[in-house]
TrEMBL record, chain A:
<feature type="transmembrane region" description="Helical">
    <location>
        <begin position="28"/>
        <end position="49"/>
    </location>
</feature>
<dbReference type="InterPro" id="IPR035906">
    <property type="entry name" value="MetI-like_sf"/>
</dbReference>
<feature type="transmembrane region" description="Helical">
    <location>
        <begin position="256"/>
        <end position="275"/>
    </location>
</feature>
<keyword id="KW-0472">Membrane</keyword>
<dbReference type="Pfam" id="PF00528">
    <property type="entry name" value="BPD_transp_1"/>
</dbReference>
<feature type="transmembrane region" description="Helical">
    <location>
        <begin position="137"/>
        <end position="164"/>
    </location>
</feature>
<dbReference type="InterPro" id="IPR000515">
    <property type="entry name" value="MetI-like"/>
</dbReference>
<dbReference type="GO" id="GO:0005886">
    <property type="term" value="C:plasma membrane"/>
</dbReference>
<keyword id="KW-0813">Transport</keyword>
UniProtKB/TrEMBL annotation, chain B:
<feature type="transmembrane region" description="Helical">
    <location>
        <begin position="12"/>
        <end position="32"/>
    </location>
</feature>
<dbReference type="Pfam" id="PF00528">
    <property type="entry name" value="BPD_transp_1"/>
</dbReference>
<feature type="domain" description="ABC transmembrane type-1">
    <location>
        <begin position="72"/>
        <end position="255"/>
    </location>
</feature>
<feature type="transmembrane region" description="Helical">
    <location>
        <begin position="110"/>
        <end position="132"/>
    </location>
</feature>
<protein>
    <submittedName>
        <fullName>Phosphonate ABC transporter permease</fullName>
    </submittedName>
</protein>
<dbReference type="GO" id="GO:0055085">
    <property type="term" value="P:transmembrane transport"/>
</dbReference>
<feature type="transmembrane region" description="Helical">
    <location>
        <begin position="178"/>
        <end position="203"/>
    </location>
</feature>
<feature type="transmembrane region" description="Helical">
    <location>
        <begin position="210"/>
        <end position="230"/>
    </location>
</feature>
<feature type="transmembrane region" description="Helical">
    <location>
        <begin position="139"/>
        <end position="158"/>
    </location>
</feature>
Length: 284, 263
């Protein structure tokens, strides 16, 4: 767009002046935006028109929802489980998310080095990228369910399932950061005769450390959300399981409210630590 | 001034410290969680062998294909609808709350608070609360995805507006344009490509999350998978997973191509 307007600064006297100023440049990008927008809108309208609400009366349902929300947020209580048990479960979910992120980060970094286009040959990199795309496409909950058949329901299945998805996600994120590195940095070190892993740890690692840290912390937050979800849907323990029991079995929405508050505090805490650490690394 | 030797020694110790810290986090967590690393690693090949034997779609599972496909397409459309409705809500809230286009600092703080609140309530909680009031229907799944997406999209859109639109906005303000003119003629057209990029990302994400919402609320593709899985029809469950992989990867490729054109 900029180059087009630059050319127009030189006015050819023979050129006929356009009669009307065109407000919008006609470009492929514009047509694409318009067509994507209209396509998405059409799908939305069609889906909403045909949405099956199972005969629920919206008015009374909304009223019921408001009652539930009031019980949750205005009168939270630890319920029959007691605050100690809830805090313990919260700790388990937090540890689960941190541990699976550590596993994901270590394995993900090694795989990312081999998957990056500027470091390895195309076949190895392409192969890793395809496998990771397939692993990523399978939702975390399905991974946990698959591993729970082999390991039994419990921590082992949850750790493996969450780690699988983390590895795939972080491999992609890290290798994209590695591919953004200026090629001359790598070339300069290679010319001095440095070995492959020396290049990785002396040139690549320090260059991308800030983005590594921020991707890793985004993943901690995602893993925490996933750990809660997996605890509920696969019975893998932690605060998610308590949430599932109190809302789906004993219908104690006061306790649900307490659990939601605990989860919010934990995520805010993680976010706070992430912001502090990112600042520390970016300043350096 | 540090000497190079001292600098390298410090760097070496720092690296060792970081590695030791990561290692001890791992060991401590696996001790508390009672995670057995060795049997965990051994479980991976066992899981894949089991998958290959049981989850492999057979000629028998072809009969499930039409109904799985129908549910999957329905789920994708539900994810699209909830994302689009969420982004319409989010764009107005983001305009009110961003530092560039927003009102006073009270409104900004309130918007940030609301966004963070919606983002941090666990998906499970939304799904279960909505299930209680709205029963087992597609509408419940739609609402759960909608409420989750709104929080994320408000934050994303606010960041986009602050990063990309402030200069254009100043330029148009200088010409004496009114607030609404600035918003609709400068801000929204300027941020459109990034906005669509985010909407596409959210759709991909929601298709994946829809599986989980479906397992919890008994709707869409998640419900289908759950039924096959719990009734031990593993070949049909495998077929479901295979179709999910195909659709998610197709969506990813499609949205990457769209991003290449618009950005």
């Amino acid at each position: 767009m900029i180059s087009n307007s630059d050319e127009r600064l030189v006015v050819d006297p023979n050129d006929q002046q356009p009669k009307k100023i065109r407000l919008h440049e006609a470009s492929l990008s514009r047509y694409m935006i318009l067509s994507v927008l209209s396509f998405l809108t059409l799908i939305t309208i069609y889906t909403l028109m045909n949405l099956d609400a199972a005969g629920v009366k919206i008015g009374s349902a909304v009223h019921g929802l408001m009652m539930t929300l009031r019980q949750m947020f205005l009168q939270p209580s630890a319920g029959s489980d007691g605050i100690v048990l809830l805090l313990q479960s919260l700790g388990i979910s937090l540890l689960l998310s941190i541990m699976t992120t550590v596993i994901g980060a270590v394995i993900g970094f090694v795989l990312a080095v081999f998957a990056s286009k500027n470091l390895t040959n195309a076949y190895l990199g392409g192969g890793i990228r395809i496998i990771m795309a397939i692993i990523r496409a399978i939702p975390t909950i399905i991974w946990v369910l698959i591993f729970s058949i082999v390991c039994g329901l419990g921590t082992n299945a949850a750790v493996l399932g969450l780690s699988f998805h983390s590895v795939a996600y972080l491999t992609k994120a890290y290798s994209e950061s590695i591919e953004e590195i200026d090629q001359s940095t790598i070339e300069a070190l290679k010319v001095t005769g440095s070995k492959f892993w020396v290049v990785v740890f002396q040139a690549i690692w320090p260059t991308i450390i800030a983005s590594l840290v921020s991707w890793t912390f985004i993943r901690v937050e995602i893993n925490f959300a996933n750990a809660v979800a997996v605890g509920a849907a696969a019975g893998a323990g932690g605060i998610g399981y308590q949430l599932f029991v109190s809302s789906g079995m004993s219908f104690d929405f006061h306790e649900v409210g307490m659990i939601v508050y605990l989860v919010i505090v934990a995520t805010l805490l993680l976010e706070f630590i992430a912001v502090k650490l990112r600042k520390a690394y970016i300043v350096k | 001034m540090q000497t190079p030797v001292k600098y390298l020694a410090r760097k070496h110790w720092k690296q060792t410290g970081v590695i030791a810290l990561i290692g001890s986090i791992y060991l401590l967590s696996s001790y508390i969680l009672k995670f057995d690393g060795l049997s965990g690693i051994l479980a991976i090949p066992r899981a894949f062998t089991w998958l290959w034997i049981n989850f492999r779609p057979t000629s028998n599972s072809i009969q499930y294909l039409p109904s799985i496909w129908q549910k999957l397409i329905g789920t994708v459309m539900l994810a699209v609808a909830s994302t689009v409705v969420a982004s319409i809500i989010a764009i107005f809230v983001a305009i009110l709350g961003s530092k560039v286009t927003g009102g006073n600092s009270v409104i900004q703080t309130v918007v940030r608070g609301i966004a963070s609140f919606f983002r941090n309530i666990p998906l499970v909680a939304w799904a279960m609360i909505l299930l209680f009031s709205f029963k087992q229907s597609d509408f419940t799944g739609f609402l759960a995805l909608l409420l989750l997406s709104v929080g994320y999209l408000i934050r994303a859109f606010m960041e986009i507006i602050e990063d990309e639109a402030s200069e254009t906005m100043l330029a148009l303000k200088a010409t004496g344009a009114s607030y609404l003119q600035v918003i609709f003629q400068a801000v929204i057209p300027q941020i459109m490509p990034s906005l669509i990029s985010w909407i596409l990302y959210m759709i991909e994400n929601n298709v994946r999350d829809a599986t989980l919402v479906g397992i919890l609320t008994g709707t869409g593709i998640g419900f289908v998978f759950d039924i096959y899985y719990k009734s031990f029809r593993f070949d049909a469950a495998g077929m479901t997973v295979l179709l999910i992989i195909v659709v998610v990867i197709a969506l990813e490729i499609l949205s990457n191509q769209i991003r290449k054109v618009i950005l």
